[in-house]
């Protein structure tokens, strides 16, 4: 039975590559490798900052380095951080995926010569609704959030803006997108970008789940504060579920895409309006042999 299961998974993968210009079909997996340390961009005032360069596609091409950056919030960037982003990565555009209220409360640190765009994936109202669910179940609240990435007009508009910026980015200038912790809105956006570029689904999950490694200190610090304040174990556990990423969260978004559009490929084409020519352009721009 195990050998039959492996054959079936292999057939699904081949089918996925045959559809939508080789966009992989999300598939089950049993083990996730650790993201290489070379992807990490070490900044003093921001965490979970990574360069997607170096990931391999199903056709053995590689994502070009220093062009596609994902991150947590940039409010605390130091002068050194700004210099690194400008001089090493030639950063051109930053896309802020956070809610309007959070953007107003903790705006990004400005960087001379860099364009900052606001593209909230969820509204303050939606986020408040998600937070209310988190009181009962952290996992259910996160799955609700991820489904909204697919089902709401606002989220689709935000992710379309991300791709539009990537399509018109200069050849040697980096684009960075981020949310608060760089794991959910940023994580799903990154999964979409890697999928469009033809990166295998196993690697997409690998990159997504790596936020648990890069956010570990931040998560532990927040939970420690709750414990000192006398929060119950249940409350701490519920909070932990909202501070980490789980494959079930990303799968909730994929399932929502299957339900609403028939597949993640259709979500990209019909939901975000990406044409075959757009995908060809993105691959030409961001991939190398």
TrEMBL record:
Transmembrane segments annotated in the record for this chain: none
Gene3D superfamilies: Protein tyrosine phosphatase superfamily
Superkingdom of this protein's organism: Bacteria
One Pfam family hit: Y_phosphatase3
GO molecular function annotations of the record: phosphoprotein phosphatase activity
Similarity remark: Belongs to the protein-tyrosine phosphatase family.
Protein name: Protein tyrosine phosphatase
Protein's organism: Secundilactobacillus pentosiphilus
Taxonomic lineage of the native organism: Bacteria, Bacillati, Bacillota, Bacilli, Lactobacillales
